[in-house]
Design brief:
The complex is a heterodimer of chains A (about 70) and B (about 220). With about 70 residues, chain A is mostly helical. Chain A is about 90% helix and about 0% strand. Chain B contains 7 helices and 2 strands. The longest helix of chain B is centred in the N-terminal third of the chain and has 89 residues. The chains are: A mainly alpha (about 70), B mainly alpha (about 220).
Amino acid sequence: MTVSAISNIAIAIGITEFLGCMFSKFIFQSDSYTRTVEKFERAKWRRDSTVASLATKQANPKSQKSAGKN
Amino acid sequence: MCTTYSNLSNEVYLTAKEAIKLKREEEELSGLAGMYYNMFLHISFLYFILCICCSSLYFAKAEVARRHTMANFYPSIAFIFLYRILASEQSGKLVAILPFQPFNFLQKVTFRGLSTVMTAQELNILWLQSKGLDATKILSLDVSNVSQACAFAFIYILCTLSIKKIVNDIFGVRAPEGAGGGVDTMLDSPQNQKILSSFGVDANEMKEARKAGKGLGLL
């Protein structure tokens, strides 16, 4: 009785979570989600590259000086 | 007369030389100022671009987080229904006997749905009956205290913490790195910041509070 009750609870929770995961996968395979993630990745890359160029500019102002002379 | 003329010409020559030198210095200084001004403009422009990039990143991040939150919302509803179904099935039943006596606050969970006016002997009989044994003939020594009784809710919580997590780790879909904060990430988007400020919440104060919460491990 107790083992069967515990296993019933465990199996029910496992199956529900599995179905939930499958449902999530179904949602995440859609085009709109893929596009959203792509947009996010692009925005992240743009932010990272801007931060990097800003850091370079602040750390090495002489590069600007030589560029100004040229 | 000659010396005066040579002195004068010498003075004129030196003054002209000094004027040229000053002119050159002035040109150099103006060039330097221009260069710094250009640099300042360039850095300001980069900061401006960075602000735009950050706001678009927050917007995209919030959009991804929103989709993940919505996808996790429906299984949560399913789990509420599952709890109700299992609770109605197992209510009042003794599901397990704990090998220890839980703390008082934990007993509220472990004893949930069971009769509180039960003696250890009654619990023992109930336990033997649940095992399918004859309670009148065999006296088990499993139960020493009535607080060892474990109802459905505690098992459900343990299963949720273990099985649900394992299944989610195996089959679940994780949000991309940086967008997995859920509602916390959604609050960063410019739109939500506007909504928060319309409710009178200071965005900067809230950010600091969230940072402090993360530092303490609360969020």
